[in-house]
Protein: Endoplasmic reticulum transmembrane protein
Organism: Hypholoma sublateritium
Amino acid sequence: MTIYYSLTFMLLASEMVTFCLLVAPLPYSLKKRLFTFLTESKIVAKVAYGLKISFIFVAILFADALQRMFRVTAESDLARHNKQGMLSDIRTDTGIAARKFYAQRNVYLTGFCLFLSLVLTRTFYIILDLIHTQEEYAKLKKATASSSRSTGAQSEDQAKEIAALKKEVEKAQKQQRDFEILKKQSAQNNAEYDRLATELNDLSGNKSNKRVD
């Protein structure tokens, strides 16, 4: 394996390890710190920029390996067609089979490296959006809890005010009933006083008439 395909294999292995770390069931706090570091670190940004350039070279290698695989496959089919009915050369067949194997291996290696890079990018942003959604949900839950507590406190205050108003109304009604009772008693007392005064006047008038006779 040439050096650039060896580097491609190392890149593929690092992508597999990174993918396993991304999908690992880490605690929320640890995952949040990890993704915050990955999104805000300048060193990670420079590494990501270098990886983008390397993926461009991997794409070029993929196109070259794909072209070689098609050419070797065509040569293998042509050699098999030309050797029908003739004794096959083991060395030639082995060489063609080896070239075909290497060409397919390079295609698979570079192709999976490119595919996994797309999967990693999409997975990273999905998890990042999930973390942001969880943060917004936590904030909304906290705000709802605080508003419910304040609403509960307000309802308790309103209940106390209503109870106090009911007591005042009952007190006023009691005073009103007492006033009506006193009013009736006063009217009765006035009527009784008038009656007694009338009787007294009548008695006084009768006595004075008897003295004149």
Helices lie at 3-23, 28-40, 42-82, 90-212.
